Amino acid sequence: MGTGGKEHVEPEGLARAAEWLARAERVVVSTGAGMSRESGIPTFRDAMEELWARFDPQELATEAGFRRNPRRVWGWYAGRRRRVMEAEPHPAYFALVELEPLVAEVTVVTQNVDGLHAIAGSHDVVELHGNLRRVKCLDRHHPYSGELPDQDGQAETDPPPCPVCGSPLRPDVVWFGEMLPERAVERAWRRAGECEVLLLVGTSGTVWPAAELPHVARRAGARVIEVNPQPSELTAVADVFLQGAAGEVLPALVRAVAERKRGSE
Ligand code: BV8
């Protein structure tokens, strides 16, 4: 069992996955934090850094946690926002963009809040859990587009007040216990129910209802391909498990799809 990164994905698994993708009209790519690991953004399960190491993200990423200690939660997100602003998409992101001309409809449904899929150039991105580059206010969700103090990623600082209603600003992400954006859920579940292939990349499958998507696709008769350095809670749903890092597997997979498409012209 590999530990990620350098395994060599077995060729027959890659060939089967490429065959299904080359034949598909509609593909959903469902990504989690592992997709951004090679862009330098730690996954939720990675050791939390320094000051935050003693806190549980499921405690910090909640409205109750924010109301209990707005300085700590705002400071945690400010540090994450800063890291995300400095991050660049890595080759797996560009491989997904290169998949678009090869397949009639590619929809990226992401749990990630870093915005990297759109930055890499993916055209149809559904953000299930919001985007920490966007900020809104706590009580009325007024969008805030003003400047934010660029602060050290480890400081606990007061969230600025909303200029419209005065309630504290918060990141425009879905906290645990909050509903997912209705339109995002509607699009994601519809696309998952009508695709021929769902490509699952870099998710442990522990957070719901996002983890339901591969089940939706499978029930609708789609093939499920999983890319992950290690098995996840969703590996049992996958028709093929390509063991490896996104940055290694996705470029190889999309190259194999392109070769099949050229061969069938
Ligand atoms: C809700 C934004 C309705 C914030 C996040 C059943 C149904 C519905 C809800 C629940 C349910 N059961 C439990 C719940 C509650 C809860 C939940 O799921 N809890 C879990 C912990 C059990 N769900 C909710 O609260 C959701 N809301 O359901 O509303 C409702 C309302 C009221 C009352 C009840 C229900 C909201 C969930 C959204 C929370 N917000 N993010 C922020 O970012 O701060 S979740 C956040 O954590 C991420 O967005 C992501 O979704 C999740 C982390 O998961 P992953 O992305 O999978 O990342 P992880 O670190 O776990 O794994 C990384 C993977 O990458 C690993 O497999 C690793 O092997 C792999 N990897 C590593 N390196 C690489 C790699 N892969 C590829 N390449 C590599 N190089």
- Run of helices and strands: HEHHHHEHEEEEHEHEEH
Distance between the termini: 38 Å
Number of helices: 9
Structural class: alpha/beta
Low-confidence stretches: 1-6
| Assembly category | single chain
CATH architecture annotation name of the largest domain: 3-Layer(aba) Sandwich
Mean pLDDT: 92
CATH class placement of the largest domain: Alpha Beta
Question: Main sheet: which strands, in order across?
Answer: 3-2-1-7-8-9
What is the count of β-strands? 9
Helix content range of the residues, please?
25-40%
If you compute it from the alpha carbons, what radius of gyration comes out, rounded to the nearest whole angstrom?
Answer: 19 Å
Features:
Rossmann fold; disordered N terminus; alpha/beta; three-stranded antiparallel sheet; 9 helices; six-stranded parallel sheet; elongated; binds ligand BV8
Description:
With 265 residues, this protein is an alpha/beta fold. It folds into two domains: 1-40 and 89-129 and 181-265, TPP-binding domain (Rossmann fold), CATH 3.40.50; 42-86 and 131-173, SIR2/SIRT2 'Small Domain' (2-Layer Sandwich). The chain is 35% helix and 17% strand. It is built from nine helices and nine strands. The strands form two sheets. It has a six-stranded parallel β-sheet, sandwiched between helices. A three-stranded antiparallel β-sheet has the order 5-4-6, covered by helices on one side. A hairpin with a 5-residue loop joins strand 4 and strand 5. It is elongated. Residues 1-6 have low confidence and may be disordered. Bound molecules: ligand BV8. Ligand BV8 is lined by residues 4, 32-34, 37-38, 43-45, 58, 61, 111, 113, 129, 173-179, 202-204, 206-210, 228-230, 232, 245-246.
